[in-house]
Design goal:
UDP-galactose 4-epimerase, domain 1, Rossmann fold, 2 domains, globular, single chain, alpha/beta, seven-stranded parallel β-sheet
């Protein structure tokens, strides 16, 4: 861990690599940091503690980006900033606007471009309609309205010339390192050990899942391609299939039948405790209507296709296998 100071930041003027600062060291931020290093960039990965496994080519730093001082320190010297910060589900409505104010103020002052990892929440219930970047924002949930308000503030900052901003929206994550997802820790460990696999809502409905590697590649592409600024993009997402079909794909790979518990309504289960599910109840519509994301606009504009879901599942099962072996 190191403190974040302007003197540590590479600059184009010095002939060194331009710095990319990733805020948030969860699955998305960590995968993005690795992807940026792979692409040859200097990378700073920031979270509140600045701890965690070392990543070759990545400087890990500590800063509280919910504060103006912490956000300014986190982005100091960076040409591109990626906002991948998330907080506990029960804290989102209160804390995410504070983080936005601090991060947006910091990039407005520094002149860095801002790439925001976004959710599908602003669309609200769609009745199963395919979601494109032109879909109306009709959220009625607290968290959906909050996300829509944040997104409008980001886009307004860009329109008004106060900051250069682009948003990348993702469906539910799946992939190596992804634990707290409907296709994460509630599925893969049990699939490998014969335990109880959890499926939410109607598992026969089509549901989009975005591979964490595609989240990283999509955000990195937006960071490298400023012609995409000023709008929302759907990050590359494999074609939607039913969760039951995903389970069948996992069965073929593990060689065992899954013992699936279908949770048809929001209630606590496993690691998703009563507090979490009470907050998630308003979002449970995502599992009772089709959730279909169309990312073709991104793929046409930037020539970046989604990883086939089969490949993502192979990588995810391998990662969880190693995780279980190490316990």
């Amino acid at each position: 861990m190191s403190a974040v100071t302007p003197s540590t930041a590479p600059s184009a003027a010095s002939g060194r690599q331009v710095l990319h600062a990733v805020l948030g060291a969860g699955p998305a931020g960590t995968a993005l940091a690795r992807e940026l290093v792979r692409r040859g960039h200097a990378v700073r990965l920031v979270d509140r503690k600045g701890e965690g496994p070392g990543i070759d080519g990545v400087e890990r730093c500590a800063a509280d980006v919910a504060t103006a001082e912490g956000a300014r320190a986190a982005v100091a010297g960076a040409a591109v900033v990626y906002h991948c910060v998330n907080v506990g589900y029960h804290l989102q409505v209160e804390v995410m606007p504070r983080i936005q104010d601090a991060v947006l103020g910091a990039v407005e002052a520094s002149g860095a471009r801002l790439v925001v990892l976004d959710t599908l929440y602003p669309y609200g219930e769609t009745g199963g309609a395919v979601m494109t970047e032109d879909s109306p924002w009709k959220a009625t949930s607290r968290k959906g309205r909050m996300r829509a308000e944040l997104d409008e503030k980001y886009l307004a900052a860009h329109r008004e010339g106060r900051a250069r901003v682009v948003l990348g929206r993702s469906a539910d994550f799946v992939g190596p390192g992804v634990l707290n997802s409907s296709l994460g820790g509630a599925v893969f460990p049990a699939a490998l050990t014969g335990g109880q696999v959890v499926g939410l809502g109607d598992i026969d409905l089509p549901h989009s899942y975005t591979g964490i590697q595609d989240v990283a590649a999509g955000l990195a592409t937006l960071g490298e391609r400023p012609e995409g600024d000023g709008r929302v993009w759907h990050l590359p997402t494999a074609p939607a299939v039913s969760t039951r079909a995903v389970h069948a794909m996992i069965e073929r790979r593990t060689g065992r039948s899954l013992n699936v518990l279908v949770v048809e309504e929001p209630r606590p289960f496993g690691a998703f405790d009563e507090q979490f599910m009470a907050e998630y109840a308003e979002m449970f519509y995502q599992h009772t209507e089709p959730q279909i994301v169309d990312s073709s606009a991104f793929e046409r504009a930037f020539g970046v296709a989604a990883t086939p879901l089969e490949e993502t599942l192979d990588a995810t099962l391998a990662w969880y296998g190693e995780l279980l072996a190490g316990q």
